[in-house]
Amino acid sequence: MQTHQLNGKTYFIRTFGCQMNMHDSERVSGLLDSCGCLEVASPEEADIVIFMTCCVREAADTRLYGQCSSCKSLPAPPSGRRVIAVGGCIAQRDGAGLLTNLDNVDVIFGTHSITHVAELIAAAFEDRDTHVLCDENDPAPATSMPWHRAENYRAWVPIMTGCNNFCSYCIVPYVRGREKSRPFEEIVDEVTGLVRMGVREITLLGQNVNSYGRDLFGAPRFAELLREVGETGIERIFFTSSHPKDLLPETIEAMAEVPAVMPQLHLAVQSGSSRILKLMNRKYTREQYLDLIRRVRERIPGIALSTDIIVGFPGETEEDFEQTLSLAREVGYAQAFTFIYSKREGTPAAKIDDPTPREVILERFDRLVKVIEDSAYAFNQHDLGATVPVLVEGTSKKDATKMIGKSPKNQTVHAPLPEGTTIDSLVGKIVDVKVDTARTWYLSGTMVGSPR
User: Fold this and answer.
1) For the chain, what is the radius of gyration of the CA atoms?
2) What tens digit of pLDDT does each residue of 421-439 get?
3) Which helix (H) or strand (E) holds 416?
4) With b meaning 16 or more CB within 10 Å and e meaning fewer, what string describes 93-113?
5) What is the sign, positive or negative, of the torsion defined by CA atoms of 52, 58, 63, 69?
6) 393 φ/ψ angles, rounded to the nearest 5 degrees
7) What is the pLDDT of residues 140-153, one digit of tens each?
8) Parallel, antiparallel, or unpaired for β 131-133 and 154-158?
């Protein structure tokens, strides 16, 4: 399919959900750029509006329906015709079924079909018909697509797609498919190329990075990958997501020994109750998780631990929830993403009846948030008075005279811009900040020394 009619068209992409979706959006953007399209800042200015969707929680469906419908009232675009496209996980899950609720959508492309998005959009402009492609398998991987990165100094690097875990509440394996690892050398070569382009920080992406290589080599090789990527010259390595059952001792050793691997680990626990963990099909117990945390901290003292926790999983009792609270207190997370359980049709957990009143679940959620706030505040106090290297991202949304950036522990750090310094001269640089204030969700202080 020819895509010449896309040349000069404007586009806008709105992304919901995880880092993998954000990276998919960068690939779609790169593909459209290569067709001569121009990115714009709002749907009003766009000939092409693309929604990259997430279906982990019900709220994502509601947001998509609302934002798609609002496109009907937009003024005419520059070309006189606007094509609306929906991609990502909701598109993979619902396919053409989306058209029942969204009659103004022209293109639907699933998670395995993003390499075809330009030709689908071109076809919609050509014949004014609806085009749907949600194949389960596509021989052309998304990683072969052009790439429009949001930042020059930082990049997402997918190392695998899909998931084999089938947690009972999770729709991801059904919409992203089985685990499929990228070739080892391809990943290392990509990071080497990014370093040459001036990238200083990468995040290795996968639904379960600890399983990397199991499908290719018969056993995980994530620890080996961390070591090889650490040899490329990249300065900062983060990774997500890690499943506790697959965090092997050799991976902990690699984290401790590779200087570029940052002292931060996101290790989703979901619940502190072994009974609920079994119902969730998480394949570890409370005790095993806590033992893992102990072993990580022994090798990497001061590491920043973050997690995901679900409140209100069907059948969760007050006793189960108290175990989650006590685990959160014991671990002392630097950050946690807390969610109220959202039923996803097609998952085993959706069939479990739960009589727990909504107000009880909300009250538990509030109690958990308080515990996490307390532990995050306590964690940040350790850096009070310290000098922290910060990768500068831009200025604070609330105060343009202050820069904002991230520490090696992924903490948000603020500092006033020194007199005579512009933010443009600092973005993508690393500066040292002497911390004089440590709050729950950020550190602040004064820049010292020269940027590098």
Assistant:
1) 23
2) 999 999 999 999 999 999 9
3) strand 412-416
4) bbeeebbeebeebbbbbbbbb
5) positive
6) -105, -30
7) 555 556 666 668 89
8) unpaired
